[in-house]
Amino acid sequence: MLIVELALTASPERLAARPAHRALLSRLHEEGRLVAAGPLADDTGALLVFDTEREELDRILDTDPYYRTPGVQVVGVREWAPVVGLTRLRRDHS
Fold first, then answer.
1. Apex CA 26: angle with CA 39 and CA 88, to 5°?
2. pLDDT higher for 92 or 41?
């Protein structure tokens, strides 16, 4: 699994782009590629947990204009290996 960390500001561009971005996140979740996503409680950032390979995640980030919108910064992408609390959803990508 991969975790994407975002830094967010209250820019008007980000707020305008958010509905389309959330619709895409809903679709990715329905497809099983996104496990969970949401803003931090103070709305200064967000975390997204993907069940995908890095190459596919890069395509997702490249095709969603939200990640290039003023007020949105991808702070980091890290691999995560949960051991408690989540059933491993990893699909066979071979």
1. 85
2. 41
Determine phi and psi for 6, rounding to 5 degrees.
Answer: -115, 145
The model's pTM is 0.86
Write out the H or E segment, with its range, that includes residue 39: strand 34-39
Pairing verdict, β 2-8 and 45-50:
antiparallel
pLDDT value at residue 92:
43
Which residues, 6+ apart, have CB-to-CB distance to 65 below 8 Å?
17
HEC profile for 21-34? HHHHHHHHHHCCCE
- Are 2 and 57 in contact by the 8 Å Cβ rule? The answer is yes
